[in-house]
Design a protein that fits this description.
With about 230 residues, the protein is an alpha/beta fold. The chain is about 40% helix and about 15% strand. It folds into 2 domains: about 1-30, no CATH class; about 30-215, Carbonic anhydrase (Beta-carbonic Anhydrase, Chain A, 3-Layer(aba) Sandwich), CATH 3.40.1050.10. Helix 5 (about 105-110) packs across helix 8. Its cofactor is Zn(2+).
Amino acid sequence: MGDLLKGISSFRGAVFPDHQALYRRLAEEGQQPHALMISCADSRVMPETITQSGPGELFVCRNAGNIVPPFSTANGGVSSAIEYAVVALGVRDIIVCGHSDCGAMKGLWHPDLLKPMPNVAAWLKHSHAAHSIVCEAYPADLPERQRVRAIAMENVVVQLDHLRTHPSVAAKLATNDITLHGWFFDIETGEVLVYDGTAARFTDIIEDRPLPVAVTGRGRPHVMPQAAE
């Protein structure tokens, strides 16, 4: 806690003064973020750092496993964040960002790890489809590290499908007023892969070219085994 308090003191004394005008404007005019990013709560994954976004530029929703529960009538924090971002803030892009070495995805592969955490186990039911896809469509001899990586990638695609069940998102998709993106952050290398729905695989970001659109196509693995190496 001491380090956090020192950080606050440093922010107030060394960082905030240089950006005071920006914060004043944001306080007076409100936020106008470019995109909603749904990412994992993993402390190693920092959306603003990865995208080099400043205050007011990125609306972030973080949870264990970067999960988007399918829409239901029950209130939920993730669903509320999505609805607010789309309806109130008018974001035109939604990003679901998974990552390597994800503890939630390891829990899917090793359910015994979740026995002391019943709430986490229940939450991860929204990712069971990703586990099933990897079990059925990937080589049985895939090493565990690559298997967990593949589950994390497939989970991004599963959550993109769940996004489409939310009325606010579905309405904007129907009028081409919103675009969905799937990203995968490699902690070790700093690389960000993007999901190409046409090719049904994750690819490198190429500068000066439009990002692929996450239009899913069923019938074969979304993430080819070589992408999980």
